[in-house]
Write the structure tokens for this entry.
Amino acid sequence: MRDPTLDLKVIHLVRDPRAVASSRIKSRHGLIRESLQVVRSRDPHIHRMPFLDAGHKLGGKKEGGGGSDYHALGAMEVICSSMAKTLQTALHPPDWLQGNYMAVRYEDLVVEPIKTLRQVYGFVNLAVSPDMEKFALNMTSGPGYSSKPFVVSARNATQALSAWRTALSYQQIKQVEEYCQQPMALLGYERVGSPEEVKDLSRTLLRKPRL
């Protein structure tokens, strides 16, 4: 970033941590080892936030519990801690980062693909082609939302954004919000206050980000 011979810019793609947690749980078997590595990588000198539900690790799969889900949620503490540090640096950028960092929310990309794509291309001084705009529009206007992990396909943007609200239990959602409150506040992801609020899909839970 400090090399004067390079014109390097950073585009940071972010997503609602609750959606990230939902994806990690849905991919529990494929990511269990990775989740364990993430959890073990945390700084042992930093006080670990307790689970809101102390018995969650022993919960059955029917209730969304089980060891793999426990580790998937535990990994979110480490992921969000790292994200918070990155966002704080971006919020108060040093000279070498000034004007060279852009955060792009996944939600903005799928709801307004053309507008967001043009902003990203403009940030790096490139012109977006009509073919790329068509591709972005098609990928966010699919017939549904795949339930299989690691599948790249055209998806319905509305379903993709709200999938976590029906996939996660209210307890899981509050756990992620507890771990990720700082990055969520900076990125404009509103916390929920009740199970009814989660299920009310007419409420977007998005506001203007601070970055």
Notes: The chain has one domain: 10-44+67-199. Residues 10-44+67-199 form one domain. The radius of gyration is 18 Å. Confidence is low (pLDDT under 50) at residues 58-65.
